[in-house]
Structure formats: C-alpha cells, structure tokens
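FAQ

Q: What does a record look like?
A: Structure on top, sequence underneath. For example:
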C-alpha cells in the first residue's frame, strides 16, 4: 500500500486518457479497480471496451504485485492470506466473542436496530479502538467518519479516549469527519475518499447512517427502483473500497416495522436485499431494558449467536464493566432496614390504650 500506483505506469494509458480519468476523480490504478468499467464509462464518456481493457490491465498489475488476490488460487493460499487480515478489537469480551476477535478489515459490517439501541455509540467506540497499537487490539490507523444524521459527537470521543488511557487531542486529530447533506453528496464523499485513505492511513470507514438520506429523499413506491440503484452503488462502492484498501467498513442502518408479522419481532432493516447481500457481516442491535442485545444475523462463518452488552461512559461495554452489578447493592442495603423486632421494642407497663390522667388529678379510688 506504500507504493504509488500511478495511471501513467499502466500500459496503454496516455496523457489524454490520464487527464480524462483525473478529471473524473480517478487518480490511481487502485481507483480503477474500485470504480469498475461500467462506472468509468459513465463518468468519462469513453467506450465500454476501452474501459474494460484498462480495468483488466490494472487488475493484472495489482495481482502480480500482490496487492489484490490472483484470479485463481487454492483454498490453502486463501486461508494463509486470511490469517494476515487485520481485526479491530471492540474493547469488550462480548463483542470480541461475537466477531471472533474483532471487526475485520476487507469486509463491510452492517449494524442495524431501532433508535437508542447503541449503533452510534458502537461507531464512536470503534473510532477510538482502531487507533490503539496492534498489541492492544488496534490497527494504528485513522478514521473516515461519514456523518449523515449529524450525530457525531467529539465530546463522546474524548470521554471514551480518557477511559482507555489515550490522549483525547490525538484521537480527535486522527478522525476525519465528512458531513453528508444529501444522498448524492454522501456518494460523492465516498468516491473522492481514495486520496484521503492513502495519504492519512485510514483503517476504518464509518457510514452513520448509510441509508438514512436515501430513505428521506426517495419517497413512495414510484421512486423505489431509483433509490435502490443509487443505494446499491453506494454500498458496493463501500465494500470494494474496504477490500481494495485493506480497511474495515462499518455501516449503520435504520429499521422499519413489518405490518405482516403477527408473531415475533417485526423489526426489519431498510434497504432490502441490496444492502443485505452486500454486507459481509450483519448484526442486529435491540433493547432489553437498560441492557442491549447484539445478534449475529448473517456471516460467512460466524454462528448465529447473541451477546448482551451495555452502554456506559466507555461507549459499548460488558455488563460487569458498566456497573450493573454495583447498581444492585443499594437494593440489598435497603432490605436490611427493617422494623425492630418485638424483643427490641421497649416494654411499657400497664395498659397503653387508655389516655393518661391529666396532671394534678388523682384517681377516684385512690382518693
């Protein structure tokens, strides 16, 4: 990744083609792989055959250099190569167990759930964890945070960084935030991110929320086909960038209630099969009182399991670290405060249900 794969180094690409590609935002051979021949034809105006030849040449050159996988390779080679894939520890035992060590690079992890279930808190936590050293479970890299709902809070980053013993200013400087104002702007940010990824050593890309702007702008069934096409382009581009540049990608997703479900959980993620088939890992967050449940819904090799976590000052955390056990102590202390037992109550001689005679007035019998 430290080698600069320039367009001029590609056979058959001259100054005219290089300028045409650069004007379209394609500045390296890596960009050709990410964008693909169909998109290159649309944004540059060159014919389809020429675009396919250029992309195929770039793929062969990167495969020979070992940057991307060969067209044909044995399962043993794939297994060995996957041992070198980076994983970002979540800082919690429950999530590391769910993800088998952490969030993978070269993969798209989708997290969906209703509001308040912890999706954004999870993203904030991962923005801090990826900056840790490799010995501590991080990748020593920076973050590209695409904020579509204006929910990124640097104050939250500062709190999480302090709890993990990291310098808050350094952590904030290593997070590049891109505020997306519409779906077209959101896609444009991702298309122009290649130069930032290489220059700033981006190891984590966060899209929070990936489908929100598409859902808000394309209303009604008449716009469903156009929305799905645009959304399909965005999530596939995010997945290809993660695989090509060896970084992790997290996309949060909104949900809806399925009206035809009478039994069970009616919650369904937005985006349909377009998002479902593109995501490498799909995790469902849901509320359970003050606790949260994360369930692995789809994965190439993980079992469908559930873990329980909590939201605390450290972002997402295990239940013990969130202090849920300590919160039970006041209840136990309250039970010890009981009314005194009968033996501890001072005994009063004589009947107590009759009022005492006024002072200075004697009993008639005693008189």
């Amino acid at each position: 990744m430290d080698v600069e794969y320039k367009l001029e180094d590609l056979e058959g690409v001259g100054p005219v083609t290089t300028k045409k590609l650069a004007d379209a935002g394609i500045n390296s051979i890596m960009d050709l792989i990410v964008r693909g021949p169909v998109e290159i034809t649309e944004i540059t105006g060159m014919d389809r055959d020429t675009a396919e030849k250029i992309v195929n040449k770039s793929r062969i050159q990167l495969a020979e250099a070992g940057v991307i996988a060969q067209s044909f390779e044995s399962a043993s080679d794939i297994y060995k190569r996957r041992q070198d894939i980076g994983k970002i520890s979540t800082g919690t035992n429950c999530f590391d167990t769910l993800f088998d060590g952490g969030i993978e690079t070269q993969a798209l992890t989708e997290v969906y759930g209703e509001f308040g279930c912890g999706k954004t808190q999870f993203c904030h936590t991962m923005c801090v964890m990826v900056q840790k050293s490799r010995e501590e479970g991080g990748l020593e890299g920076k973050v590209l945070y695409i904020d579509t709902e204006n929910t990124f809070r640097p104050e939250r980053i500062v709190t999480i960084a302090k709890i993990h013993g990291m310098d808050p200013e350094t952590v904030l400087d290593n997070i590049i935030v891109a505020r997306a104002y519409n779906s077209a702007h959101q896609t444009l940010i991702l298309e122009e991110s290649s130069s930032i990824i290489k220059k700033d050593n981006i190891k984590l890309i966060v899209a929070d929320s990936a489908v929100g702007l598409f859902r808000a702008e394309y209303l009604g069934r008449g716009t469903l086909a156009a929305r799905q096409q645009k959304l399909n382009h965005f999530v596939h581009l995010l997945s290809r960038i993660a695989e090509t540049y060896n970084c992790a990608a997290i996309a949060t997703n909104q949900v809806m209630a399925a009206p035809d479900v009478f039994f069970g959980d009616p919650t369904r993620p937005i985006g349909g099969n377009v998002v479902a088939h593109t995501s490498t890992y799909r995790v469902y967050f849901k509320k359970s009182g003050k606790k949260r449940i994360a369930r692995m819904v789809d994965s190439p090799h993980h079992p469908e399991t559930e873990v329980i976590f909590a939201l605390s000052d450290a972002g997402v955390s295990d239940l013990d670290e969130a202090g849920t056990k300590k919160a039970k102590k006041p209840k136990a202390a309250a039970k010890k405060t009981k009314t005194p037992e009968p033996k501890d109550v001072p005994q009063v001689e004589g009947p107590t249900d009759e009022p005492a005679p006024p002072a200075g007035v004697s009993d008639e019998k005693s008189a």
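Q: Is there anything notable about this one?
A: The chain is about 40% helix and 20% strand.
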